[in-house]
Specification:
Layout (H helix, E strand, L loop, with lengths): L3 H18 L2 E8 H11 L1 E6 L5 E9 H6 L9 E7 L4 E5 H4 L9 E6 L11 E2 L5 E2 L1 H9 L3 E4 L9 H4 L4 E3 L13 E9 L2
Parallel strand pairs: 2-9
Antiparallel strand pairs: 1-11, 2-3, 3-6, 4-5, 4-11, 6-10, 7-8
Length: 194
């Protein structure tokens, strides 16, 4: 008798998935390696801490909502996002789940680890035509901490090196890292047609 319940559950989930997928239309696909420069330019330096104020790392990060807004989709109420990792794992979200209007601390994508630190002096040079090159100043300002995020998690269940790396998705409001995703390679945006 009890062996039937798992089978019925699998059949129900399969029917539900097939019913939903018939109403989903793929409208955009983004490869993260092709977007890396654009995402880096939009990102800002962020320090991450756990609920015990232990420093977890400093990374360039960007709210997931900003990545979707870069796609230029006007009707965000009808979209579903699918993030795929290099190991074949995928997660689906509605736009509301990643929106700043729903969560006090929305999920973020880590773009890259911050390397270096801002010193007390930044030297700006000028070229032979007397034009000042602000590239060094821009680089130092990008390193400066812009935001601190205090995650609600007490302790990571996986090594920090595995969780905190480029193209990882962090859910700061979660009390566990089960939903956190690493090595995201692709974002697919679907339109849910009613």
């Amino acid at each position: 008798m009890f062996r039937i319940f798992p089978i019925l559950g699998v059949i129900f989930i399969s029917l539900l998935y097939n019913g939903l997928s018939a109403n989903l239309k793929l409208i955009k696909t983004f490869e993260m390696n092709q977007l890396s420069d654009k995402l880096f330019n939009l990102s800002y330096s962020t320090e991450f801490y756990n609920s015990k104020n232990t420093f977890l790392g400093k990374y360039y990060s960007l709210p997931l909502q900003e990545i979707v807004l870069q796609a230029g989709i006007s009707d965000t109420n009808s979209i579903i996002l699918e993030f795929e990792s290099a190991d074949g794992y995928s997660m689906l979200f509605t736009y509301d789940e990643i929106s700043k209007s729903i969560s006090a601390i929305p999920p973020v994508m880590l773009i890259d680890k911050v390397v270096g630190s801002v010193g007390d002096t930044v030297k700006i040079s000028e070229n032979e035509k007397g034009i000042i090159d602000y590239a060094d100043l821009d680089k130092e300002l990008k390193i400066a901490t812009v935001k601190k995020i205090y995650c609600q998690i007490n302790k990571l269940t996986r090594p920090a090196k595995l969780v905190f790396n480029s193209f990882s998705i962090i859910f700061p409001m979660d009390i566990t890292d089960r939903r956190w995703m690493t090595n995201v390679v692709r974002l697919k945006i679907y339109l849910f047609e009613k």
